[in-house]
Amino acid sequence: MSSNNAAVVEIAQTASKFTSSIVLHSENKYIDVKSILGLFTTLISTHSYELHVHGPDATEAKAAMSEVFAKHGLNVSIASE
Length: 81
Known about the structure:
Blueprint: H1 2-15, E1 21-26, E2 29-32, H2 36-40, E3 48-54, H3 58-71, E4 75-78
Parallel strand pairs: 3-4
Antiparallel strand pairs: 1-2, 1-3
Helix pairs in contact: 1-3
Domain HPr: 10-70
Keywords: Sugar transport, Transport
Pfam families: PTS-HPr (PF00381)
């Protein structure tokens, strides 16, 4: 489970570099990816997630978040506006 911990920390750190709102949608939950606690209780590699990004730096945030999720083998699609 330690690799998951690394993923959670890196995802939260990457997200907090942006002013945009970055929210992970999984089943019936919405999690602010800047919240390490929220990620710990939600992030399971077998699930697929949808990432919602809104804000002035959304384009850069989407690219960075896609990269970090892929690096950790997590299945995430970026929601279109």
